[in-house]
Structures are given as C-alpha cells and as structure tokens.
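Q: What structure does this chain adopt?
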Amino acid sequence: MKRLLALLLFTTTSLFAADADVERIAGSILVHGHSMQYARELTDQFGSRLIGSSGFDRAAEWTAAQFRAAGVTSVRLEEVRISRGWTRGTASAHIVAPLQQTLHLTPFGWTSPTPPGGIRADVVPVSDLAVDSIRGRAKELEGRVVLLSIATVFRNGYFAGYKPYLAALDALKAAGARGVLVGFGNADNALGMLEATWGVDTTPPLPIAQLGMEDAKMLERLAANGRVTIDYSYDSAFTPAHTLHNVVAEIRGSERPDEWVAVGGHLDSWDVGSGAQDNGSGCAMVLESARAIAALGRPPRRSIRFILWAGEEEGFLGSQAYTQTHKAELANCIAALNADAGSGHPKGWATVGRTDVADAFRPIAKALLTDLGAADVSDSTQFVLQSDHAFFLLNGIPTLELMPDLSKYFDVHHRSADTIDKIDPHNLAGNAATLAVAAYAVADREQPIAPHASREDVMKILEKTHTDTFVKEMGWLP
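A:
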C-alpha cells in the first residue's frame, strides 16, 4: 500500500490536477472499501437478474439507492422497453434406450417450450450445419432430435457463424426435426447458458436446449453404435412486454460538465447462477468507483456518468437504447470504460482495436496502475462486440475494456457455479480501484485521451475481426 501511495503521489500534474486526489480515491477503495459488500448484497439479496424478472427490477432500484447513499446527487432510471420477457420453468430429461439414465438439461434463453407431453425421439448427431447437407439428410432427421456440439454451432466464429446457424435451424425444421440439443459446458455436467437468438423478439423455429458436457458425449457414443432414444421436456414461457431501466448516476464535471466519460457494467444476468462474476462484480466496481470519487469532494474537469446497463445478455439492449436516446450528446463523450470480465487479479485494459487509444493510455496506466498489477494496455479485439462497449465503439468513441486475469473466468461464466463465493475480495477491490483511478484520469485530463474514430476506421476494426457483416445485418451501424 505504501508503494502504491508513493507512486500515486509521484504522478505528474500533466495527468491530474492534484496528486492527492488520486491517493484518496485509491485509498478509499483499498482500505475499508465497499466493493465486496456491494457484490454480496447484489447477488445474495436478488439472486439472478434476468431481464423482465422482479429480481432485475428490484436490483435496479437498489443500485440507484446505493448511488444516492454514496453521495451522488444526480441519479435516474432510464427506460428500456422489451417486447417480452421469458422464464425458464422446470426441465427433465432421461435416456429411454438402450439404457436408462437421467440427463442434465436446460433450455436456451428465449426458446419455446417443448410440446405438451414433451419430446420422445431418437437422437441424431449432426456435425455439418450447411443447409444443403441438412436437406440431404432430411429422411434421417425427420421425427428425430438433433444433437450438436457448440463447436459445430459456431464453427465459423461466434459472429460470422450466426446467420448460418439461423439458416440451419430453419432447414432442420423443414426436414422434420423435433428439437435441437447442444452439448457444451464444463466438467461434471455443469449447465451453462446461451441465448437461442440475438434479442428478445425472434423465436427459434425449434425448441433448443443445452445438455451437460458428459451427457452429450455419452449420447454421441451411444448413437454411433446404434439407436438411442431420449425423453425430455421443459416448460419455459414468454411473459408480457416489460419496461427495464438503465441506472444512471452522474458526477458533474468542474470545468467542462457537458463533456463526459461513461463508466459502465451490466446489471442483468442469466438465471442459472446468481450472476456474481457476470456481472455482479462489474456492478460492484462501478458502484465503488462512484462512491470513492463522490467522497473525494472534488469532481474531475469533465462529468462521469456511471451506468448499470439493462439487457446486455440479450444483445446489449440497454447500451444500444442509451446511445440512441443520447445520440445528440455522443459527440461530447470523451471515452467509455466498461467492466464485464469478472474479478480475476487486476491485469490491465484492452482498447478494442484502437491503437491510438492504447498508446495514449499507456503512460497513465504505467504511472498509476503498476502497483495494482493493472498497467498492461493492449489494442486487443478479443471482445470486440461482446459487451456494452460495443455501441460506443461503433460510434467511434474511445473505448477501454477492463481486463482482469481471465484464467478462471470461463469456469463459471454463464454457469450455475457463478456465485459470490468465486469472488476474491482483494482482487475485486483492486479492480474497483483500477476502474476508479482510470475513470478519474481520463475525465480530468486537460485534453481528450484520443479523438473519435471515423466511420472508415471503425469499419476497419470490424473487418479485421470478421464482425462487419454481422453488424450490418443487425442494423447496428450508426
């Protein structure tokens, strides 16, 4: 701690108006901070925060109250409408022949329930989702349940494979298949979660469910040696249209209040766990950053808008709505910082393809974040369109994605194991301090960290990551 404070005091005034301010922000978080308290209360009081559920709505009200209690005077709930919600219901599945065994199964999000009485059918593994291949196997697939691996579904990449996946579902329906099972997940048949389609408006043509990893491999082995029959059902249901809320808390800037920095993380989660790492941890970091900066009593030059997003898991619904509603203000958005990669040991930042942003931020990170272990800065595009920074990136706004150590993150990501006991309090506090110091640094600089990118430069990033076609098909380009 002494080394950190000494380093912070050494920081030059070219980065900050007052070195002591940075010391107080970091110290407030690292010593007697509230980040673990926020994470624990958010996950244990409200559990999973699936959009359209009472858990999400109560969590939005609670986080707004936490911002106010932290001394942020400007707090508001901004509406995000969804056409329908969804509930998981209950599920059961077992092998009927050639042996009898219970299976671990759960429906994909926003998929229709199985027909009354469930589905009893033979299983056919499919490893080629080309429409012509499916049509050629129509006789074999009729009346059967199709078993896919997650590698087959996204063979061409998560985004590049999305349209072929949708076309394959239509082809499987036309061939007479009765349902689709996808095998993926961690060891011990731990169930995870994916959405059946992007958004909440599209209903897949067939019931789609996930099988535990070992169960899926067993079905593949049995099917390779002969006929295998399963019986399964689940009673997921669509719910009426609903109004969600982004939670927005703003600390107005002291000199240029109309210029602003967005600091966000998504409040919603899938419902197979309690969404602790994804993204209760990010919410705790945002809340803690707001608390520490508000407690400082000296706002940065520019405003900071701390935003907890709605509906990230279903396609960045909250951040898309926000950038559309506030489109006239985006020219004054200096940067967007996002926390949605769990709470592993602090490591650094990714600028999502923006080399100029990485070059500008490196001196700040080296000066302020080295002792937190968070001084690494790269222009990595690993998560180019996989969180709420996406619509800021598409609008050319400099983007910084917090990147802790990810070595354990995907063990619990979208899994039933995503619970509060997986969060290390020290790592969480370190990430919260990293986020708060970075946000204050960017907002308090004399000059913006980098200019807005042109449409042409944004398209180069998308083309490099093979996401340009997907973005165009989704109508996401500003």
